[in-house]
Amino acid sequence: MNEYNFAYLDEQTKRMIRRAILKALAVPGYQVPFASREMPMPYGWGTGGVQVSAATLTPEDTFKVIDQGADDTTNAVSIRKFFENTAGVATTEETTKATVIQTRHRIPEVKLTEDQILVYQVPIPEPLRFLEPRETETRKMHSLGEYGLMHVKLYEDISQHGAISTAYAYPVKVSGRYVMDPSPIPKFDNPKLEMDAIQLFGAGREQRIYALPPHTKVVSLDFEDYPFEATKADHPCDLCGAKDSYLDEVIMDDAGDRMFVCSDTDYCRTRRAQGHDGRLSKEDAV
Amino acid sequence: MTPLLSVQDITKTYGARIGCTGVSFDLYPGEVMGIVGESGSGKSTLLNCLAGHLEPDAGQVIFDPRADGPVDTVTMSEPERRMLGRTDWAFVHQYARDGLRMSVSAGGNIGERLMAVGERHYGAIRDKAIDWLGRVEIDVDRVDDRPAAFSGGMQQRLQIARNLVTGPRLVFMDEPTGGLDVSVQARLLDLLRGLVREMGLSAIIVTHDLAVVRLLADRLMVMKDGHVVEAGLTDQVLDDPQHAYTQLLVSSVLQV
Description:
Chain A: InterPro entries: PhnJ. Chain A: One of its GO terms (biological process) is organic phosphonate catabolic process. The complex is a heterodimer of chains A (about 290) and B (about 260). Chain A has about 290 residues and is an alpha/beta fold. Helices cover about 25% and strands about 15% of the residues of chain A. Chain A has helices at about 10-25, 45-55, 75-85, 135-145, 150-160, 265-275, and strands at about 30-35, 60-65, 90, 100-105, 115-120, 170-175, 180, 200-205, 210, 220, 245-250, 260. In chain A, the strands form 3 sheets. Chain A has a 7-stranded mixed β-sheet. In chain A, helix 3 (about 75-85) links the parallel strand 2 and strand 3 (about 90). The longest helix of chain A has 16 residues, at about 10-25. The two termini of chain A are about 40 Å apart. The relative contact order of chain A is 0.16. The model of chain A has no long low-confidence stretch (mean pLDDT about 95). Chain B is α/β, with parallel strands linked by helices. In chain B, the strands form 2 sheets. In chain B, strands 6-7-8-3-9-10 form a 6-stranded mixed β-sheet, sandwiched between helices. Chain B has a 4-stranded antiparallel β-sheet with strand order 2-1-4-5, covered by helices on one side. In chain B, strand 7 (about 170-175), helix 7 (about 180-200) and strand 8 form a beta-alpha-beta unit. Chain B is globular, with a radius of gyration of 18 Å. The interface between A and B is medium-sized, with 16 and 24 residues.
């Protein structure tokens, strides 16, 4: 087939990563350091997620990659090809058929099940980073559970914008202990973090792995008088008419025309195959 | 009456050099203690040892918290000490920049300690922040401005508001008026004196400015080369200095 070890990484490296994953699952939300390897792609393209996927995949797995919900963007296509070449695993674009899903910035709309694993690509794992630049200090804040600073950020949002304007990478408290950055998923997806599937987060450049075991309690931080709200564009999908999915806004021309489409391409395609219609689905251009 | 803070034989050395050595004193509730001395006399080292920023080599710092009996803050666990630093204690830095978050608005700066002790109601936090801006004489419409847009004197007053918002009982101040011009200093001292009396605060003020301690401090300690060379009531020490170094210090003050 090829000259690569299964899933590119050598077995010792995969064992090291699996140990980190097990530790992360044992302490939900805690950032476990690991010896991140150089991967054949630039940092920021999902080196952390790829390493976690490589350590998680078995030859029987079916693999799916999404980038901002889409299966067909450069990042998703190249990572899917990477594992087709190096692991020879089956790949799919259908969320329900996949056993391991690597994702960048979205959680699929379809409810995931207990036999699935969701792997996130994480750019900056430290939720306190932009408030407290010192790593020694943020580690201490995590270990002592001093999270008042996280609310300072939300306070600043409200004082400047009248509402909590943080729309992605919205901080959460995991099972009453660690405050965690759920990676840059829209806050629309935050309620879905309490799910049946295992969720693994890999940050390659920052060399951290963290995890959410199934059914872990995940609470989005907020104020009593400004409660957390999962927001999305107030619009149905223009292709499949879905009112419950997260939407991308697409500018159509220079006359102000725009359309809203599901960011989860598989969800949108499945609904259209089932006969659902949106405002623009009959047009030739689409 | 039990002392609020009882310091016994605090010693801190940097290798062979002495930071401060054998310092003992009691501080009672509502009392303001001044520590004066020239640069390098060990007064900042002492203050940092008392406030838990430095670990002393020997000695005890016994603090009497609200809830249970006196505790030695040197040997207490770090989470407890940091909790104390957010509730019963406050630390005013010489440079406001060290004590403020420069990228966070004035309101957020004042609210941080409230949020750190568990306040989760935005309206309540903001009301308190606005109340405290008023108390330290900063225009209320500056509440959403960042401290970077404030003058030096305003930054220092903001730092004081941020520290006092949780109603601490003991305030450590390291040269609170350093780097401010005299008229701003005078206003700040006025403000501090008012707040200390009004809230019944105890304070330890480190300074090289004798005028500051004359105005604020009930008692005075004079330090030289890491040792306390003279201690007593402020007026007594300043008006009738006994130790040669104190005499030199008092006579060195410039007269206008």
